[in-house]
Structure formats: C-alpha cells, structure tokens
C-alpha cells in the first residue's frame, strides 16, 4: 500500500493528526534557518521590504491543533475566524516565494509550504500549493 493510499484510508481527523505530527517534526529545519538568517524580502512590484514572523509556523500548527482539539469537545461558533487571521499572515510571503522575491533553501521552503497547506486544508481549500487535491474539511 502506498503512503497516499494509506493516508486516504484514514478519517479526516486522523489525517490531520498525522499532518500535525509531521509538520511538528519539520520545525527544527525552520528554526535552524531562522536563527541564523533574516526573514525579510523585498517585493519587486512596489519595492517594500517585508519581514516574516519567525514563529509563524509554530503558531499556525498550535492554532490548528488547538482548533481541532476544541471541536472534538464542543462546536465553536466562529472558531475559524482566528485561523483565518493566522492564514492571512501567509498571503504576502507565499506570493513572494512564487514570484521569487523571497528565496529559501528547498528544505526550509517545503517546511513553510507544508504548514501553509495544513491551514489551507483545514479552512476548506481544495487544492494545495503543489496542486494536490484535498477534500473540503469544514
């Protein structure tokens, strides 16, 4: 059985548990990079310099995990509003990566995209940055 078939056979909650565990395992890659490199880039459209919060990945994983744990206990009314606020922090950096305004080493970039895809999938996006299909979650 391939990894894709195995993960597809899991419940959505279990898929998120696995995704959270795996993204947590990638955090040292991000942390090692941010401890020795600035998280700034200049966008070529308007020439502004942007800074990415070094805690963006950890904060996002924690928020996703907290949201999923809280929805197992009780239904949160408007609970995705905080997730959407966190998700918006990815907007400019993702565009910068795609426009090559911000260049990261491959391992760091895929770690960044993995967490971005995690929150996007939770919020119901049907395709990830890597053009893989995901089912609507909520």
Description of the molecule:
The chain is mainly α. The protein has one domain (25-122). It contains six helices and two strands. The longest helix has 23 residues, at 12-34. The two termini are 28 Å apart.
Report low-confidence residues grouped into runs of 5 or more. 73-77, 134-138
Structural class: mainly alpha
Could you say how many structural domains there are in total? 1
- What series of H and E elements makes up the topology? HHEEHHHH
Proportion of beta-strand residues:
under 5%
Oligomer: single chain
Count the E strands. 2
The major beta sheet can be summarized as:
2 strands, antiparallel
Tell me the number of helical segments per DSSP (H or I, 4 or more residues long). Answer: 6
Report the span from N to C terminus.
Answer: 28 Å
Average pLDDT works out at 86
State the shape.
globular
Please bin the fraction of helical residues.
55-70%
Q: What strand line-up does the widest sheet have?
A: 1-2
Rg over CA atoms = 16 Å
